[in-house]
Design a protein that fits this description.
141 residues, alpha/beta, 46% helix, globular, binds adenosine-5'-triphosphate, binds magnesium ion
Length: 141
């Protein structure tokens, strides 16, 4: 099966960057396009402090530096990567973005920034697995 558009949600963790590398490798074999997505976690109690401009700016700056890491990986693999940054509840935005961009595969890490935990699969990945509109490839370290 050939995938045309692969979505790789990244949170800056090594797990997610490994998933990006795996996604790009697949894309290079199949001629697919890849979009890396960072979701600024504006959820729960964070919603209120996002009203403070400096806080919001700092979150976006962090997001940009995470996307820079993704750009570097793509550059080192000689791959033309698209990147996006959005705010909201990460799993919801990941599912919405996969729908909007018509992605036919999501590649993500089994864990993220909060790992290592006792859980084998992080909560964001669990929720994406439950609600994704397309297949999900979970990359384990
Ligand atoms: N804010 C985010 N933006 C984009 N992708 C994310 C984001 N958070 C997590 N992900 C994706 O989900 C994968 C798993 O991370 P997840 O958050 O589920 O686990 P965790 O951080 O180890 O645990 P926790 O459930 O405590 O957050 C990451 O490797 C990444 O692909
Ligand atoms: Mg997490």
């Amino acid at each position: 099966m050939v995938y045309h558009h692969i979505l790789v949600p990244i949170d800056g963790s090594q797990h997610s960057l490994n998933a990006l590398e795996a996604g790009i490798k697949m894309a290079q074999e199949e001629g697919s396009i890849v979009t890396a997505l960072y979701v600024v976690p504006k959820a729960g109690q964070l919603v209120e402090i996002f009203a403070i401009k400096d806080v919001k700016d700092a979150f976006y700056q962090e997001g940009e530096s995470i996307l820079d890491k993704a750009r570097e990986i793509a550059k080192s693999m000689n791959f033309n990567l698209s990147v996006r940054i959005n705010e909201g509840t990460p799993y919801k935005i990941i599912i919405e973005t996969a729908q909007t961009l018509n992605c036919d595969l999501i590649v993500m890490g089994n864990q993220g920034r909060s790992g290592p935990s006792k859980l084998l699969i992080g909560s964001c990945t669990q929720r994406v697995l439950a609600g994704a509109p397309c297949p999900v490839l979970v990359v384990r370290e």
